[in-house]
Every structure is written in C-alpha cells, then in structure tokens.
Amino acid sequence: MSIRQVWMVTGAGRGLGRALALAALAEGHSVVATVRGEHTLPTHERLHVTHLDVRDRATAIAVVEAAVSELGRVDVLVNNAGYGLIGAIEEVAEGEARDLLDTDLLGPLWMSQAVLPVMRRQGSGHIVQISTVGAAGTMPTLGLYNAAKWGLEGWTEAMAAEVAEFGVRTTIV
User: Fold this and answer.
1) CB-based burial label for 140 (10 Å; 0-12, 13-18, 19+)
2) Cα–Cα distance between 133 and 53 in angstroms, integer?
3) CA contacts within 13 A on the Cβ side of 128
C-alpha cells in the first residue's frame, strides 16, 4: 500500500493538469487543484479546487498556506499552469511577452517559493516542473515560449542543488 500524499497541481482545469490531478486521486492521494477559470473537475472528497492565477505571487502564497492549514502538508507540487505563444519575435507585443513570462517562468517560481518552506519543515517534498522539448532547442515562432522554458529549467537546476539537503526533490518533465 502506498503512502497517501497531498498533491498541488496548477493549471488543473484541463489538459495535462487535469489528467495529473485525476491520476493522483485515483492513487488515493488528496489533491489541491488550482484553476484560473471554469473547470470540469468532478466533485470528490479528496479533491480541493481553488482559483489561482499563478502570476499573482501573494495569492500563490495564500493558496499554499490555506492548503497546509486544511490538509496539514504539501508533498508534491506540479507546476503545470502555462501556455504557448506562437509568433515571430518582432511581432510579439509587450503585454503578450509579459503575460507569457509571468505565467510560464515566474508563476512556477512563485509557487515553488510558497511551498519550499513547507517542504523544508516536513523534511521532504517533490517539485515537478512541466517544461517542453523546446527548452533543449528552438523553433521559429516559438522563441519567447522557448525562452521561458529555458529560464524555468535553469533556475530549477539551481534550486535542486539548494534544496536537496532538506529532502526536497525536483523533476523537470
């Protein structure tokens, strides 16, 4: 029998995030599923759906604190929230660039910063960063998206070395 954990999955309203949240539930874990808008997640006694825009650092901290207050811990954080942007570098508007970087690069940073003190106190935890094959190379019209994911992988590798001694693992997917 596996140990039941508390998972927090960002961007859980659809796609990969939704699938990960449902898979964790199926394994018997409790899940805090963060969504930015409407969702079709089922009602479940171990599923806690909360609204979160990962670009908002203060709210990210508050969501983690609320989860710990209610469930006692966070064992796994899956930083899944994000989106792609297709367009030539010279055509990307300032607002589009800031929204993408705030979501795909800084959102996971804010969530990781929020959960790390909890995981250090627990002496364990796992932060999973959802990246892309584009972080290993580039493609025309995906430059800004690739840049965000390169940055995510860069600071995640540094963070992994910083938190390993506290029992916190990191994985880049």
Assistant:
1) exposed
2) 25
3) 16
Distance CA 67, CA 69 (A): 5
Q: Decide: 73 and 47 in contact? Cβ < 8 Å.
A: no
Q: Global pTM?
A: 0.94
Confidence at residue 95, expressed as pLDDT on a 0 to 100 scale: 97
Work out the average pLDDT over 147-162. Answer: 96
Q: Residue 2 pLDDT > 70, yes or no? A: no
One-letter amino acid identity for 31? Answer: V
Q: Which helix (H) or strand (E) holds 108?
A: helix 107-122
DSSP lists the bridge partners of residue 129 as: 79, 172
Residue 145: active-site member: yes
Catalytic residue among 30, 83, 124, 131: 131
The active-site residue out of 2, 30, 112, 145 is 145
Of the candidates 2, 30, 112, 149, the residue annotated as catalytic is 149
Is 131 known to be catalytic?
Answer: yes
In the numeric block, the tokens 């309203």 are attached to: 13
Pull the structure tokens for residue 67: 């989860």
Contact 126, 171 (CB under 8 A): yes
Instruction: Please state the rounded mean pLDDT for residues 87-102.
Output: 96
